[in-house]
Structures are given as C-alpha cells and as structure tokens.
Design goal:
Blueprint lengths: L9 H4 L12 H6 L4 H13 L1 H9 L10 E4 L7 E4 L2 E2 L1 H5 L12 E6 L5 E5 H17 L7 E4 L5 H12 L3 E4 L6 H11 L3 E5 L2 E3 L2 E3 L1 H11 L9 E5 L13 E3 H5 L11 E2 L3 E8 L5 E7 H15 L7 E4 L6 H14 L2 E5 L10 H9 L3 E4 L1 H8 L4 H4 L8 E5 L5 H11 L6 E4 L32 E4 L12 E5 L9 E2 L3 H9 L6 E9 L5 E6 L3 E4 L2 E4 H9 L4 E11 L3 E10 L9 H13 L5 E6 L13 H9 L11
Parallel strand pairs: 4-17, 6-7, 6-8, 7-14, 8-11, 11-12, 16-17, 16-18, 18-19, 19-20, 29-30
Antiparallel strand pairs: 1-2, 3-13, 4-5, 9-10, 14-15, 15-23, 21-22, 22-24, 24-25, 26-27, 28-29
The site of 5'-O-[(S)-butoxy(hydroxy)phosphoryl]adenosine (WT7) has 22 residues, from helix 12, strand 20, strand 24 and strand 25.
Length: 644
C-alpha cells in the first residue's frame, strides 16, 4: 500500500488558511434533542465504555427479548451486536406507533413527478404493509429468503421493503436506473426468489418501464444459481405490461383480500435485514449485509441526534430508495422516530429547476437532506427559483455522498437556509449503515468539513502502517472500534470482507477514503483512496467501468479514472486502446460513451474518452491509473496517495 507522505501544502489543507466558521444558533441549541452538556457526557461515556453508550441507545427502541451481551468480539472482525436479542426493525417503524398518538399522524407524503400525491398515516401504512406481508407469505416466501426490489421512489417500494422485513425476508433494492445486466448480476448474487417491480414510472417527463428490464434480466440468469419464482408488479403508470402466467402477479391482486393485520416475525438481532450492492474495485458487485438489531440502533440514535427530529418535523431525504441513504434515512430511520417523511418520484429538475423548492413550500418541509451534486445543479440556476418560494419552514439542512465544496455549502446556507439552518454534512458509507462523522445542530460548523466523529465512533487518520498522522496531514480514514449498524459481511465472501476492510490497516476498519484532520479535530474528506469513482455520490469501481467498455468489440484495453466534474464531483474519463483495424476511430469516443451508458445505466456519466496507443503499466502489468489521473489533474504521481 502506498503510504501518504506528510504534506502540508495548501492543496492538502484546503480551507485551513482562510477558514470560515459558523457558531451554533442559540435558538437551535436551546431546543436541540441533545444539549452541549449531554453531548459532552455522551462523548465521555463512549470513550470510557462504548458498549455502554450503544446499550443505552438500544434501550430507546422496542425489543421482543432483551440482549444478553451487547457485543461479541470473539470472532472479530465478524462482530455480533446485541447477542441473544430478539427484535424486528418494522416493529419500531410501524407496530409500536399504533398504540400511540402517532397512529393517525402522517407517516408518508409521496409526490409523483406529474404532481399527483398520496398520503399515508402510520396506521394506513401499517395496514398496507400487513396486507403485502401476508401476500408475500402466501407466495411461499420465508424468513431468510431474498427479495429484489427494482422500483423507483413509490409508496409500494416502501411497502415492499417493510413487508419483506416484517416477514423476516431479506430485501435487496436495486436502483431503477440500473440496466438488465446489472440487475441480473444482483439478482443472481443475492439468489433472489422474488422480484418486485412496477409497470412504469415517471422520470423527466417520460414513462420508463422497468418490467421488460426485469424480464430481460431473468433471461440472463443462470438457472443453476438463482431461480426467481415470483415477480410482483405494482401499478403506477398503467401502461401495457407483459406478464407471464404463473410467475408474474399484480401487486393489487395479491393484496386485495388480505387482512390488515399480520404477525411481525420475531428475528434474532443478527438476522439479515437487507443487502445492498456497491461497486467494488474488483469489478464484481459487493453485497453488503445489514442486520436487524444493530442497524435499527445505529440509525435511530444518529438520526435523532444529528437531524434533531421533533414530532412536528416534516423530513425530506431526497435520496433514492435504491441507495443506503434511502434505506437508513429516507425510510427506516425517520419512521422509527415517528417523523413525517416526504418522498418524490421523479427528476429533481422536472418540469423545471424549481421542483425541489416547490416541494419544500408545498409540504412545509422542515429538514432537507440532499447531496452536494444536487445543490450544485440547483445553484447553477441562480437565486430566482428559490426566491420565488416560501422556504421559511426549513430549520435544518443536510448533505451526504461527496465532499461539499465551500462555495456550494455557502449557497445552501445563505440562499436556502437564510443563515438560520445549520448544515449537517454527514460522512458515512453503505458499509457503515449510519452517520459516522457529522456535526450536531449544537456544533460549530466549518464549510467543507464533516465535523467530528459521533459519540461511540472512534475514527482516525493514519498512514499506511496504521500510525496516526498529525493534524493537517492527509492520510487514510479508519474506524478503530466496531459500531452497531456496521455491515456484517460481504455476502458469501468472508475472505474479501476481511481482506478489503479489516486487514489493510492492522486492527482497524479501512474506509477507503483519504482525509485529514485539523487542529480542532474536524475531519476533511478528500476522496477515495482506491480505484473507485464517486459520481454524484454513487460509487462505481474502475473495474466495473472498464469491463463495460471492454465488452465493446472495438475496445481492447481500457483504464477508467475519476476526473473532476463541476456538478457531479467526479465523472469518468476513459483511456482506451482501440482494436487495430477498427473502423471510424474518430467516432469511437462518442460510440463508447453511449455504449457505457447503455451497459451500466445513467449514473455512469462519461466525461471523455481518449483513444491512446498504450496504457501506462507497472512492471507486473497492472494499469497505473494513478499516473493517468495525476496527468489529468496536472499533478505529480506522488501527490495522489494510494490510488494504485
Ligand atoms: C463514500 C461512500 C453514505 C451514503 C452515500 C454514499 C463518500 C460519503 C461523504 C461526505 C465527503 C462523502 C466517501 C465514502 N462520502 N459521505 N459527507 N463528504 N465524502 O454511499 O456509495 O457507500 O459511498 O462516499 O468517499 O467512502 P456510498
């Protein structure tokens, strides 16, 4: 591994010189769920006994049976949390609200792209989930079975996820923008028994049809490895949809006669709740497995503290249900806290760039959690759009997925937040399941920094040998103690779980990010240390990108590197060696751009394709992506730590 050299240049230290800070506002501090005194006490408790800290957090939730042991480290890094505990996250999201005043409170406000909307109280959502849970049981789905959900942000997506968890099945939501190839890989890897999708949905003024994509994906499956017995199709756009008798079912038909009550499966705290696949450097998607007990504890505590959720809040996390943000903080987390959640189906700029602000004012949203890419996109349209709407209900803002550049941070703070709303820039990952490093509403804010590790999280910046580096020096971000909502394994690949996360830096969880800490202990994230490109907060591994481009007959060698993109943070640049004898090489870059999009879906934003005679390689023949990237950025190869 490349060890980052001490580097105190301006480039490494970002804002440190002309740093701007924002003190917490007194009206926010006086009402915060966590006071400065409580925060100090939590830090102290977590530092002396982190298990006791998380045990206290677990006590805030409902359990069928209390755990016997908070943490079992005997088979580290395969940690087990709340050992012996019995629970189900859905009990905390729905069941337990039904005996409280939350019963008739709005749980979900959903808006479709055409402007139609549907609202569900906690009681209504509970009943819908129960009906679908019974329907899934009737289809023969059992605890532990895997269900792939291939749908955009629809109420049925929420219902399908919760119903799956309710019966103890394991869901794997696949982003609806993924291609048939990517979907097939994920269905196969999860060995799914059922797929849930919809007839059509609205995106950017068009009706997209996921069901034929599911059909294509199922045709690609190796039936020895996965057998999908059922496909459930929800109505949304009411478009003509091919249905195969026996295998395919309409969602509405399945739930029509089901009763509004259903048993919530009593799960072991360590039983899997969901998988999410992220793109790894090895080219094969990695299935991150999250468990009921720890996931609910970590997500509930961090959401309550960081976003300071009150019973009156209307919370909107703009993420898609297909990403971990959609799981933890658009659905499971806010429902556990009893908040009212807003969900939107469509494109954020449709029919024009005021859609987000229209939604905020229409529903009186109080907390808005978005990505820097979205904010930069909206910023590009100027202040007129936000100025035309009443955004005064907003009281807290949040960001995730990529480094928030101070310029966009300031725009969000001033134009959207009227300098009244603290911005919670939350650092975490699909692997972590919950916020790990983030300010709280009571914290001093530094634009561009993700603040400090939350109580119960021990994060540090180290060199390649695991030695902490001093403030101002960039290094590798690691986590030094287990945390409850950590992923439990890479599905069926324990060796890779150990190798990729726990053995790179001795005794630590290796996050794969390069970062540095300032004198106050604030963390500044610089980007990925591995061959992963972060496009608009979505990770795509170089290997996956390269194998997509290489499946085109005219590309014989390829290297993919992330290059700066003013809106998306990063986009991909390909260096491609063309097949000798390939025709129309001049047109090849455009052809390959379109080809990759078709292979991987719209997240794979290709900025450029450069046709080259050869690729730089190490003496062992590994492509030196770091050299290509350094050249693109106009830097020396050694300025980029750990990229190869
Ligand atoms: C990677 C994880 C967690 C949900 C979204 C992405 C980057 C995440 C921040 C932030 C700078 C961030 C890191 C991380 N990242 N949050 N606040 N500031 N970078 O989930 O696909 O698992 O990606 O996103 O590089 O490793 P993911």
């Amino acid at each position: 591994m490349h060890t980052p050299e001490p580097d105190r240049s301006d480039a490494a230290c970002g804002l440190q010189k002309e740093e701007q800070v924002f003190r917490p506002l007194s009206n926010i501090v006086s009402r915060a769920n966590v006071t400065p005194q409580e925060y100090a006490a939590a830090l102290e408790l977590a530092a002396s006994d982190f298990k006791a800290y998380w045990e206290e957090a677990a006590e805030e939730l409902g359990w069928f049976k209390r755990w016997e042991n908070v943490l079992d480290e005997s088979e580290a890094p395969f940690y087990r949390w709340f050992v012996g505990g019995r629970c189900n996250v859905v009990y905390n999201c729905l069941d337990r609200h039904i005996d409280t005043p939350n019963k008739n409170k709005l749980a979900l406000i959903w808006e479709g792209e055409p402007g139609d909307s549907r609202k569900y109280t906690y009681y209504e959502l509970y009943r819908e989930v129960n009906r679908f849970a019974s329907a899934l049981r009737k289809l023969g789905l059992l605890p532990g079975d895997r269900i792939v959900i291939y749908m955009p942000n629809l109420p049925e997506t929420v219902i399908a996820m919760l119903a799956s968890a309710k019966i103890g099945a394991v869901h794997s939501v696949v982003f609806a923008g993924y291609s048939a190839k990517a979907l097939a890989e994920r269905i196969q890897a999860a060995e799914a028994k059922a797929v849930i999708t919809c007839d059509g949905y609205y995106r950017n003024g068009q009706v997209l049809k996921p069901k034929p994509v599911v059909d294509q994906a199922l045709e690609r499956l190796d039936s020895r490895l996965a057998e999908v017995e059922h496909v459930v199709v929800a109505h949304r756009a009411h478009v003509e949809t091919p249905m195969r008798k026996g295998r395919d079912h309409w969602f509405d038909d399945l739930v029509r006669f089901e009763p509004p009550e259903a048993l919530t499966e009593v799960m072991d705290a360590e039983d899997p709740l969901f998988f999410l696949y992220t793109s790894g450097v090895a080219g094969k998607p990695k299935g991150m497995v999250h468990a009921h007990g720890g996931f609910m504890v970590g997500v509930h505590r961090t959401l309550d503290w960081v976003f300071d959720i009150k019973p009156t809040d209307i919370f909107w996390c703009t993420a898609d249900a297909g990403w971990v943000t959609g799981h933890s903080y658009a659905i499971y987390g806010p429902l556990m806290t009893g908040a009212t959640v807003v969900m939107y189906e469509g494109h954020p700029l449709y029919p024009q760039a005021d859609r987000i602000w229209r939604l905020v004012s229409r529903y009186g949203i109080t907390i808005l959690y978005a990505s820097p890419t979205l904010i930069r996109m909206l910023m590009g349209f100027g202040v007129e759009f936000p100025a035309a709407y009443d955004l005064s209900t907003l009281r807290l803002l949040g960001s995730v997925g990529e480094t928030f550049n101070p310029e966009a941070w300031m725009w969000f703070y001033k134009v959207i937040g009227r300098q009244q709303c603290p911005i919670m820039d939350t650092w975490w990952q699909t692997e972590t399941g919950m916020f790990m490093i983030s300010p709280l509403p009571i914290s001093l804010l530094k634009p561009g920094s993700v603040g400090k590790p939350l109580p119960g999280v021990e994060a540090d910046i180290v060199d390649g040998a695991g030695k902490p580096v001093p403030p101002g020096v960039r290094g590798l971000l690691v986590i030094k103690k287990p945390w409850p909502s950590m992923f439990r394994e890479l599905y069926k690949d324990p060796a890779a779980y150990k190798r990729e996360y726990w053995e790179k830096i001795p005794g630590c969880y290796y996050a794969g990010d390069v970062a540095w800490k300032d004198e106050d202990g604030y963390f500044w994230i610089q980007g990925r240390a591995d061959d992963v490109v972060n496009i608009a907060g979505h990770r795509i591994g170089s290997a996956e990108l390269e194998s997509a481009v290489l499946s085109h007959p005219d590309a014989v060698e390829a290297a993919a590197v992330g290059v700066p993109d003013p809106v998306r943070g990063e986009a991909v640049k390909f260096f491609v060696v063309a097949r000798s004898g390939a025709e129309n090489v001049d047109e090849l870059p455009e052809v390959l751009k379109a080809y990759v999009r078709q292979e991987l879906g719209p997240m794979a934003v290709v900025q450029a394709v450069e046709i080259v005679d050869s690729l730089p390689k190490t003496c062992s023949g590994k492509i030196l992506r770091r050299a290509l990237k350094a050249r693109e950025l106009g830097m020396g190869i050694d300025d980029l730590p750990g990229l190869d």
